[in-house]
Each structure stands twice: as C-alpha cells, then as structure tokens.
C-alpha cells in the first residue's frame, strides 16, 4: 500500500507564504506542514491553527539554525556572532564540524528553545525536520535526537532520497550536488536514528523537485513510488505584494506560486486515485 504525506515547509516565513500553504491545506492536498520557529509570520500561523479550521493536519518544527534571529537567549556567538544566524552557506560550513562542545552546547540550547516555544504556544508537534536539512548535519544530529526524545516528537525527516530516474530533463548541477550532499548526510544519520527509538518514513521525495515541481514531474515520480509511507517535501506559497527586507524576503516568490498551482492542479487528484495512493498526515507511530 502506498501512503503519501505531502508536507509544506517554511510555514511562518511571512503571510504570503502562509496564504499559499493554507490554501493547499484547504484543498486537501497538503496534509502536513513544518513551521519556522523564528519566522515573521508565526503569529499569523498561530491564529489560523487556533481557529480550529484545520483538522487532521500534522504540524512539525522546522528547526532553523541558518537564517533570522535565534529564539534562545544568552551567549550564542558561534551560531550568531552578530545577533543573527550566518546564512545558508556559512551556517552549513559551521554545522559540518563535529566534536566542539561549546558549539554543540549552543545548538542544544537553541533547538530546545525552538521546540519549547511551540509547546508554550500550544501547537502539537508530530514531526521534526530542519530548514535546509540542518537537523542531520554532524554538529546537530545528536542534539536533535535528544531534543526529539525529550519533547516526545515521534517522527524525524530523513532526506536520503536516491537520485531520480523519473525526470526527463537533466538536473541543474547545483541542485544535483545539493541533493547528493543531503542524501549522503541522511544515509549516515539514518543508521544512528535507527537505534534512537524515533521514527522515519520509509521513503522521502522532494530534494530534486525544488524549483522544478510540475504536474509532469509529479506524475512521473508518483508512477514509480515504492510501497510504504513516503514524505514528499513541497514549498508552495503566494507572491508577497509588499515584501519586507528580512532574512525571509525570498520565501514568497513566483516559483513558490507556481509550485502551489501545480499542487492545486485537478490532474494531481486523478493521478493519486489512479495509482491508489492514500494521502495522510504523519500517523501515530507504530
């Protein structure tokens, strides 16, 4: 049996992105979402969730150690030497380090603060993943596992997606290289997570569809979807009409709106029905 979680990342980055994700949720296509703890649109997300209008949706924490301001207080000069995170490239370089107790202490405190924030706000968390997949980087992995265990978050994203055989066009080199890097990190992390008691889906898809999510690519991917439970990572949104200059300014752009339109395409439901693929949020762990 094929079960598919369609999870939208970056909920909370701004209102336009929120609008697109909630539109996809209301359509019944997106079944799960991961929320940025430090996104400018977090209060908007909270109001919508607390309205009670969204049933049978799983909410997760989208751990962020690369963009915007930290949630924790105190001295975090490795992660945020100038009061904000270092950005994607420098943060990933930093988080590839392993065995630095001071850095790992900062990571532990920041992860705990981000998860605790959601608990304080009353948002139930079914899963944990990372913005730009930072949760599986060497300096972060063990702190992430301990935090998930401490806060009773059962599901962890494992982005060890094999290179796609279903895409007709050649992948851009940066996207292919990034996908391979996350796949290799995920494969290493999976062996450690298997001993932790936490849960992972059987399969993961979406690394190679970022910025290339079309109905044709989705159909090709779904036609060869293996049996079991799969998480598909997506990034829908609406274009921000009056974008503010923040670390999240690029989160609500035309490519996000094109991705949303793909997910709302009526052909997608027909493909899911034809392939007998069941949409689901993150289930109760086995």
Describe the structure.
Helix content is 38%, strand content 14%. With 286 residues, it is of the alpha/beta class. It has a single domain (2-279), classed as Alpha-Beta Barrel (TIM Barrel). Strands 1, 2, 3, 4, 5, 6, 7 and 8 form an eight-stranded parallel β-sheet that branches. It is globular, with a radius of gyration of 18 Å. The model has no long low-confidence stretch (mean pLDDT 92).
Give the secondary structure arrangement, pairings included.
Layout: E1 2-11, H1 15-26, E2 32-35, H2 42-50, E3 58-63, H3 88-95, H4 101-121, E4 127-130, H5 141-150, E5 155-156, H6 173-193, E6 203-205, H7 215-223, E7 228-234, H8 254-264, H9 266-274, E8 277-279
Parallel strand pairs: 1-2, 1-7, 1-8, 2-3, 3-4, 4-5, 6-7
Helix pairs in contact: 1-8, 7-9
Features:
8-stranded parallel beta sheet, 286 residues, TIM Barrel, 9 helices, alpha/beta, 8 strands
Helix/strand class: alpha/beta
SSE topology string: EHEHEHHEHEHEHEHHE
Number of domains: 1
Total of DSSP H or I helical runs spanning 4+ residues = 9
The CATH topology: TIM Barrel
Question: Would you report the number of β strands?
Answer: 8
State the CATH architecture.
Alpha-Beta Barrel
So what's the oligomer here? single chain
Radius of gyration: 18 Å
What's the CATH superfamily, by name? Glycoside hydrolase/deacetylase
Mean pLDDT: 92
The biggest sheet amounts to: 8 strands, parallel
Shape: globular
Query: Beta fraction of the residues?
Result: 5-15%
CATH class: Alpha Beta
Spatial gap, N to C terminus: 16 Å
Helix proportion of residues, in percent?
25-40%
Poorly predicted residue ranges: none
